[in-house]
C-alpha cells in the first residue's frame, strides 16, 4: 500500500501497517513528518506498525532506477484478466486492487497498483487513478475503462482489454520467434568472419610471407581485409554501441519515425509483414474501443498513437478529420496504400450496417492469421538461405586461405 500525501513533501517514509483483513502491508509515502504519515494511515482505517524515513537520493535512487523490473504488456494483460474476473465475481474494486497488488510477481506493477488503490480509496475513479501513471497504463486501456465506468460494464471492458493485449502479446511473440533465428545466424556469421580475419588469417599471411612467391588474387584480397579489420573492428564496435544508444533514445522521435516507418513498409520480403502487423494492430485496437463505447473521434486519435507506424497514424488522422466534417470512415483510407482494398470495403460495409466493431474484429483476426502464416513462410525461406550464406562466406575464406598451399612445393623450390 502506498499513499500520496502533500505534493510539496520533501521526505519519503517507509511504513508497515495491518489492514482490515489482518494482513501486514508495506509501502512508501511522501510527507513533511512522521506524524503526518501516521495521521494519514489512521484515516484509512489501517493500524500503523512502523514508520521510518528513507533516502531516495544518490545510490539508493540509482538502485531503484536500474534494478526495477520493467512493466510489459503481458503484465497488463494478466492484470486486466484477473481484475475482470474478481469484479465479475462480486468483489469490490478496492479489494480486487489490493489482491492484485499483493499477488502480482512484478514489484514495479505492485507498487503502482498500491498507489492506484490508494487513489481509488480517496475517491478517484479507476480510470482517473490509472491516468496518473501514463508510462505504465496506455491511453487505450484508460479510455476503455472510462467508457466502461460510464456505461456500467467495467468487467466486460476489462475482459476486452485483456483479450486485446493477449492478442497483441501473441502477435509480438510470433514475430519475435520468426526473427530470432535469422538474427542469431547473422550475428554468428559476423562474429565468425571477424574472428577469422583478425586471428586466423594473419597466421597464414605470415607463413605465406616467409615462403615468398606471389599469392593468388583471392588470398591477397583476404589478407588485405585482415589488415583493414585490425583498425576497422574497433571503429565498428564503438560505432555500433554509439548507434545503439542513440537509437534507443531517439527511435520514437517524430523526425526519426517519419523517415524510418515508410521505409519499413517498403523493405523487400519483410515489408509485407510489417504492413500486415500494422493493419492488424489498427483494426484490433479500433474495434475494441468502438465495442467498448469509446467515441469514434477519440478512438481514432488513440489508435493512431498506438499503431506503431507513422503511416498508419497519418491515415487515422485523415479518417478523424473526415468523420469530424461529417463524412465516412472508409473514404480517406483509399488514399493510403497501407490499407488493402479488402480492409477498406469491410470497414465501409461495417459502417453502413452499424456493425463496425464486428467487421474490425474480423479484419484483425484475418490479419493475425496472415502474420502467423507469413512468419512461418519467412522462417522456412530464411533458414536454408542463411545457412547457405554462412557456409558460402566461411567456405570462400577457407578456400582463399588454402589456395597457396596447393602450390606450396613450388614456393619451397
Please explain how this structure is put together.
By secondary structure, the protein is α+β, with helices and mostly antiparallel strands. Helices cover 75% and strands 6% of the residues. It is built from 17 helices and 4 strands. The chain has a 4-stranded mixed sheet, with helices on both faces. Strand 2 (11-18) and strand 3 (24-31) form a beta hairpin. Helix 3 runs antiparallel to helix 8 (154-211), helix 8 packs antiparallel against helix 11 (270-292) and helix 12 (296-306) runs antiparallel to helix 13. The protein is flat. Residues 1-10 and 56-68 have low confidence and may be disordered.
As laid out across the biggest beta sheet, the strand order is 1-3-2-4
Number of helices: 17
Percentage of residues in strands: 5-15%
Low-confidence stretches: 1-10, 56-68
Termini, distance in Å? 86 Å
Structural class, judged by helices and strands? alpha+beta
